[in-house]
Amino acid sequence: MTELGLAITPKEVITRFTGLSHAQLGRPLPADYRQRSTLELARRLEGVKPIEGVHAQLGQLTGPRCVCSNSRSMRLQLSLTSTGLWEHFRPHVFSAPEVGRSKPAPDVFLHAAKVFGVEPRKVLVIEDSAHGVSGAVEAGMRVIGFTGGGHTWPGHAEDLKRAGATQVVPRLSDVAAAVEEFRA
After folding, report:
1. What global pTM score does this model have?
2. Res. 177: pLDDT tops 50
3. Cβ within 8 Å of residue 90, ≥6 positions away
4. Quick check: is 105 in a domain?
5. Residue 157 is part of a domain; what is its CATH number?
6. In-domain check, residue 32
7. Whole domain around residue 112: which residue ranges?
8. pLDDT tens, 90-135?
9. Separation of alpha carbons 60 and 79, rounded Å
10. Is 95 a member of any domain?
């Protein structure tokens, strides 16, 4: 975006666009923008690292699980494979734009519940974006907000709570305990 003359900081990108499938910039982008940004994103995702401790944390969580994202399937497979997480979730990796409307619409969450044959009210979502929290709440699901990723900002936890997260955890190590509280 900087190359296009858009004065926007990484922090501003995170706060304005996290959880959205595309940016609303108020002006048209060049015709080759999507192709160029897709190639650059793929290049960067090849080196992405998982949040420390995620594999151990997933080992503590029992029961069915999936990924519901606004990203496209290709991007999801690339990032989950790069982090070693693909095997923890496949084949239950759902792309919102490929199953319905993108978050904050509830479509991807409702799709996942249908695939698993579970009533939405029995689903617990761990979500790091306010748009995702809103979508899961609209689907009738319970939500734990997560602010332990690399894209957090001051006020992030409050944004997740305002969107409907019942609880917000700042560290990955807190997720299993929060899930157990919901189960109880």
Report:
1. 0.81
2. yes
3. 80
4. yes
5. 3.40.50.1000
6. no
7. 54-183
8. 999 999 999 999 999 999 999 999 999 999 999 999 999 999 999 9
9. 22
10. yes
